[in-house]
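User: Please predict the structure of the protein below. I'd like the answer in structure-token form so I can feed it into my own downstream comparison script.

Assistant: Understood. Taking the following sequence of 533 residues as input:
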Amino acid sequence: MKSPHFSMFPFLLVVLLSLSGATFAHSHEDFLHCLSLQSSNSASISKVIYTQNNSSYSSILDAYIQNLRYTTPATRKPFVIVTPLKTSHIQATIYCSKKHGLQIRIRSGGHDYEGLSYVSEVPFVILDLFNFRAVEVDTKNEVAWVESGATIGELYYRIAEKSKTLAFPAGLCHTVGVGGHFSGGGYGLLMRKYGLAADHVIDAHLIDVNGRILDRKSMGEDLFWAIRGGGGNTFGIVLAWKVKLVTVPAVVTVFTVNRNLEQNLTRILHSWQYIAHKLPDDIFSFVMITKVNSTQGKETIQAGFRALFLGGVDKLIPLIQDRFPELGLVKQDCIEMSWVESILYIEGFPRTNLDILLNRTALARPNFKAKSDYVKEPIPESGFEGLWHKFLEKEANANISLMMMVAFGGKMDAIPETELPYPHRAGNLFQASYTVEWSNEENAAPQKYISWIRRLYSYMATYASKSPREAYFNYRDLDIGTNNINGYTGYAQASIWGRKYFKNNFDRLVHVKTKVDPENFFKNEQSVPPLSP
């Protein structure tokens, strides 16, 4: 790649300043001026800059806001959105943001649960990578290069185009951006067989704080370790990831079995905790808990027991009937399909229309708040009975109030917790996550729903991991601690949230950050800070 040219482009400068308008501060005009000086191609850079006076600004901003909670009039908006078409656009944005005191928020799919890829309390720029979405699959060597702006659905689709027996162990939601997903670890349907998405990253291209483009060899193993689970917008901007693909059978089997309180749900779920993490690693199992109306019209609790089995139904049925007879699984509950079809099945889409995987806006965008836990000891039946009372509270009458329990074990038990920044490996029965959603009409005053999920989380403290109470970085939760919005954040303050996401790996992340970004340019409310000079 050629180095950026530093000559003046008068035409571009006129365009940029006319976009900015008189309402922007002088420093903002200086930023736009800087972009014109740093760009090597005036025609291309002018097409990827959107200020608040641009007619497309709102549509570009809103396109990938996946949590509508952050679309209120009070939500602070970026000064400018840059949608780069080439690496020089990214390099120019980094340079000019540093020079003129603007924070960068990096967005790939917009699924940050607290909106940190597109929201800030200080003046900021969004660097939206949706144009960086190329996927190149090499079936002979069983690898792929995928750019950070692609979605995991686009990655799945391109793999499935070329092979029925290759796959990748990433997430369940196909609209999630690769950049954020891989940066936080990334678990999914193949986790118990193969581990996390980040476990299968074998190279990367990253732009550092000085604008250098680095690969695994030139960045060094410490930085390469940190970007695979240590969080995005922290160590630099990853342009693309080289991943090792995994093998799956041509036919897999899925099932969903719903049980409610009138069908002995409490006893069945209590048993699931002892069984699911010990099942063969060909089985991925999870439970979705929510409040529903029973056939008698009364409120009850329902749990959907769902699973993917890497094999045919004739092998699955006797296995579950032997190991988990309480579920009552029968052949009619099961469907055989391809691995890529199972992604659509889990999401609730018709599995015959694989083109849905290319639709970045196929899923509904709610207003929501979420939290997460890791559970290492079985919850007693009395604990579940108390949980049902929480779900039967009035505030749980939002559009969706749910709890998901994802069984661990398998490959996750075999990988040391220091292998990558993501530390939640052996010893976990399951990961728990809690979500509450509400309507657009209620978004002006969502506090009763947020209070409800905080009460639920408080109730679960008895049963969750302790010292620290662990949490999953990709299920971002600012309730567990934040950095200072302005000024320096010390190690002790950042450790409050950092150890919950990363346990003792947080220390190594801090040292990597201190080495590669000592001035803490790449930062947000939960980015790893450097040690003080």
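That's the full token string. The CA atoms of residues 114 and 241 lie 24 Å apart.
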